Structure formats: structure tokens, C-alpha cells
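Lecture 7 notes: from sequence to structure.
We start with the chain below.
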Amino acid sequence: MRFIKLILFVLLASTGFAQTGYNIHFKVDGLKDTTAYLGYYFGESTYIRDTAKVDSKGEFIFDGKKILDPGVYFLVLDKTRIFEFVVSSNQNFGLETSTSDYIKNMKVKNDIDNKLFFENMVFNMERHKEAEPFIKIIQDSTLTDDKKKDAREAFSKINDNVTAYQDDVIARHPNTITAKIFKSSKAIKIPEPPKKADGSIDSTFQLKWYREHFFDYFDLADDALLRMPRPIYNEKLKEYLDKLFLQQKDTIVNAIKRLVPIAKKNQETYKYLVWSCMTKYQTHEIMGMDEVFVELYDLYFASGAMDFWISDKIKKNLKEYADRLRLSMLGKTAPDLIMKDTSDKLRSLYSIKNKYTIVFFFDPDCGHCKTETPKLVDFYTKDKIKLDVEVFAVSTDSSMTKLKNYIKEMKMPWVTVNFYYSAVGHYQKLYDAPTTPSLFVLNDKKQIIGKKIPIEKLEEFILNYERFQKSRIAKKA
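Predicted C-alpha cells for the same chain:
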């Protein structure tokens, strides 16, 4: 199922072209006296653009004064997607078919792009039927590779035939939507690395070349690619950023900054690319990558670059989220926490002099906290001396009674305080800890070196950090 937050659709609503008007005439034998809908794709979603009444002869027209944005559209009847077609620069054409087989019976009037589009669908159905017996053999786990050889060769020839067909359409009709679809999935052939003067090979050549040519067949400034049955624009971005670059904040931000000027040639692709990257790094499984969100916010929203379309309310929400993330970015000195413990004494985070400090935010009523806290107790018991680590735990519930009971139940041996009795204000104004449990790892300078690390990975994380630090020192020596 294709879905996306409604807000994204509102934000990225298209601005259209300078031209005006569309008129698409349909005649579907076997259809009569009903309502048809004109649907379209956008990113990961589908939307309805227009409606039309189907007469007793199966004829109906979608028309409007504002030109349709280019891309792949579809016909909807009774909440069912019937068939797809393309809309490009020519928006006055006809499609005639019958309910017995919408695709095979399709006749296109006055539009080369849809003629190519439907011819390709028929061609693909024929090639798929041709390939079926070979696919069955290739997927048969009871057969040896030798017995699959002929089937693989036959299947490869069919694939070559499909590639040749697509290349021919691209060569003859390069500006059609159909050609753009073909090009979007066209494989990039990476050349062999050249030899250096000493006969050696540059091991980084192919990766650098691939990065440089990754979008050779994919125009980042073509908004038709936003309206495809598959969200290929977003998929292409994701593949480029996830697979071709080290997952490190500065590296990823620089990669995005290289793409933005290309997409900026078209306002639709410009805002879509920036927004997609923002949402991609809003929450990320790789520690520290949420800092990409902060950097992109500063570059494209705080700067006013996106003011031509972003609402004040959404911009305010983005700022609040970015500012919250800033509180606990890696390398930042963690703010001191001074709060009362169960003995009514103020305890300071900065009073802890161990090599490492774990700041642990929890809620006594949180089910997940009750699962994770015993793991932290086990880690502490095992590694407190070995790693020279201390835990500073903060209850996010104001009840001291609950806190005392929780400490007793969980056998928590470390410093535990109650956020309500704070000498430094609310913890959420100091740390990005909107949910519980939240965990931060600090070094001896109280710098944040890790966050949101699974407790079972804490020992491994700290040991890896120490190895990394030793390696850095050795390189400087």
C-alpha cells in the first residue's frame, strides 16, 4: 500500500506549468453510467485529481483549465485502479479500449507517448510469458547448475531483447515519459580502473567514478520522476546516500549539497529533494546521523531558502525539533544536572569523576524501562571497575515514593535523582530525551560520545571508542 503523511502532500503541492488546459477523452466498451476518477502518483502516495461521468456508451472526458503535472496517471473505477497511462506535454489526446482487456485492446489517439507506453506493456507481457518456463527451471532447487545452464542463457537473451527494445525507444523518443522511465532504471556501466605510471591501480577510482555518474540517466530536475508508480526519485536518493558514502554527518551533508543545485533548476524537485533528505535524517538508526537534519535545517530553512513554499507553522516546528536535537549532539559537552536523590540531597552529574558516565533517563511506570533497567544493572555490576564507569539515572516522574520503590525493585546501585527537584531547570531543556528510556554516554570531559545505544552493546561501544582514541593518539605521535 502506498501512503505518506498528508502534510507532505500539502507542502509539496505542485505549482504547474505556464500552459493551460487538459482534455483527455476516454471510450471504454463495456462500461456505462458510472463515475470515473483520474488518479496520480506523488512520491509514495496516490491522489485523485479529477472526476468524470461515464455515459451509456462508455465515453467520458477529464478536462480542466490548469495543465496537469507530467508523470504517470491512472484510471479509477469503484475505488479500483484500472490501468495507468502517461501525461506529458501533449494533454489533448484520447484512449479507447474495452473491459475485456484494457491493455491489449488499447488504442491511443494523438499521443506518441501513450502509444509507446502501452506498446511497452504489451511487449513486456509477451516477454514475461516467454520467460516463464525458463524462470521455473532457474528457480528449481532440485536441479543442478549444469541443468539450469540452457535456461539461464535463454533467459539472458530475453533480457537482452528487453534492453535493446528500451534503448531503441530512448534513442528515438528521448523526451517522452516512457523513455524517462526506461532511463531511470538503466544500469551504469563502470569502466575498469586505469593503471598508474608504476603499474598499480587506483582502488578508489570506480567508486569515485560511480558517484560522479550515478545520475547520468536520471534527471534530478525533472518533476515527472516524482509521479511514478514506484517512488523512484526517493529510492534513487536513498541508494546514492546510503550505499556510496561513509555514513558520517559531514560526508552526507556534502553529498546532499552537491545534489541540491541540480534539483534547484525546478522548484518542485528542489523542495522535494530537500524535504525528502530532511525526513530521512529526522530519525536515523545510525547514531549521530540526526545531526544531518540539524545541518539541513540551518542550510535550507533557517536561511530562508525554503520560504517560497514552507508555511510559518511548519518552519516553526522544524526549528523546535532541530533545536531539541542540538542539545545532545555528539561531541557536545553535556549540561550539568543537579537534582535531589531519595535522601533529599542535591547530586550533581559533574561531581562524578569516573572515566565514563552513563546518563539514564527512565520512568518508573514505563514498561520498556522495566525491561532495560535490569540490563543496565548487569552491565554496571560487570563493567563498573573494568571500564571505570558510573551511572547517573534521572527519574522523569515527580513521585519520590515511586522512585524509592523502583530503586529497591531494580536493585539500582548507582546515583539516582528525581527530575522534579532540579536546581538547573527541566531536563528536556538540556537533553534530547523525549522518550524513556533514553541513554547517553559521556567521557571524562563530560562530552557526549554516544546516545541511544542498546544497553547490551554498551561494553562493546566503550571498548571500540577506546581503541579509536588510542589510534588517533598513535597517528599524532
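Points to note: The longest helix spans residues 145-172. The longest strand covers residues 20-29.
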